[in-house]
Design a protein that fits this description.
Length: 125
């Protein structure tokens, strides 16, 4: 069910619980700014979620409130994960669902990193 990305951060969301170690995840990368782990229902041969460690509901929240170092660190982490999975060439897709119209289901900013095969058109017609 899509969420309202304008609501306050909810510490009980699944990604907050993964960050605290309360729920297991198959982690592939972690640094001071981000955590990356495999999606439990992959939609491509490579399907990794990359989340910032800070309490951000959406891209809007993150870009408005995160310090510059945290923004840069998160973006660098996404690139690092893509390179580590050999996706720089032939390419990959990043997807961030924001709010109800964007289909966001977890109220913690996250980027889906898809790759490993041709992914087709971005949106169905």
């Amino acid at each position: 069910m899509p969420i309202d990305a304008t609501k306050p951060y909810d510490d009980s969301n699944i990604f907050a619980r993964i960050l605290r170690g309360e729920i297991p995840a198959k982690r592939v990368y972690e640094d001071e700014f981000a955590l990356a782990f495999h999606d439990i229902a992959p939609q491509a041969p490579v399907h990794v979620l990359v989340i910032p460690k800070g309490r951000y509901v959406s891209w809007d929240d993150f870009s408005a409130h995160a310090p510059d170092a945290e923004i840069a660190g998160y973006i660098r982490a996404v690139g690092h994960v893509a390179r580590e999975h050999g996706l720089g060439e032939p390419g990959y897709r990043l997807l961030a669902n924001i709010g109800g119209h964007g289909g966001q289901e977890v109220p913690h900013l996250h980027v889906h990193l898809f790759g490993g095969r041709p992914l087709g058109p971005m949106l169905s017609q």
